[in-house]
């Protein structure tokens, strides 16, 4: 293995600042958590990206009977959408919800009495390639800012 030692003080200074910036990534993780939260809000607004499976006629009739139609998919009362929270620390960023019923909507599956009702997956905790691009840009900006 060949080792190269840089004697340039400018490069050494830049490397020192870069090392300090990567010890605590909280600032960029805060930004990433915001991007993730915005992505989830956009998913609810646009009813999926790509579009979620439409509601079945039976579900629409049921919602109409109780005054929840017309409306958006996964937003009968809006409780799931407003339950989305974000968190971050020095090494991670996340969004999620504490609603028990969220998993069945995210992943799909059988629900109801006897688990006889098939609910299609409608992934609201999802990011697009565009969202990932925003995250990459945030990381690049953080690492190069002031370096």
Order of helices and strands: HHHHEEHEEH
Tell me the number of strands.
Answer: 4
Largest sheet: 2 strands, antiparallel
- What is the count of helical runs? 6
Strand order of the largest sheet: 1-2
Percentage of residues in helical conformation: 40-55%
Euclidean distance between termini CA atoms: 28 Å
Radius of gyration: 22 Å
> Uncertain spans, ≥5 residues at pLDDT below 50?
none
Arithmetic mean of pLDDT: 91
- Measured by DSSP, the beta-strand proportion falls in 5-15%
Morphology: elongated
Structural class: mainly alpha
Give an account of the 3D structure.
It is a single chain. With 147 residues, the chain is mostly helical. It has a domain at 25-98 and 125-139. The chain has helices at 9-23, 26-46, 57-65, 79-82, 102-107, 129-144; strands at 85-88, 93-96, 109-111, 117-119. It is elongated and about 75 Å long.
């Amino acid at each position: 293995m060949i080792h190269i030692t840089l004697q340039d003080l400018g490069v050494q200074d830049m490397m020192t600042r870069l090392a300090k910036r990567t010890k605590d990534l909280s600032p960029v993780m805060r930004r990433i958590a915001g991007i993730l939260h915005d992505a989830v809000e956009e998913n609810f607004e646009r009813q999926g990206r790509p579009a979620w499976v439409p509601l079945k006629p039976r579900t629409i009739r049921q919602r109409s009977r109780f005054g929840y139609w017309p409306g958006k998919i996964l937003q009968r009362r809006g409780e799931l959408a407003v339950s989305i929270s974000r968190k971050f620390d020095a090494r991670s960023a996340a969004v999620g919800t504490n609603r028990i019923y969220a998993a069945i909507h995210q992943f799909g599956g059988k629900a109801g009495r006897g688990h006889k009702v098939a609910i299609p997956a409608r992934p609201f905790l999802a990011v697009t390639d565009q969202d990932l691009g925003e995250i990459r840009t945030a990381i690049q900006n953080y690492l190069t800012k002031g370096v």
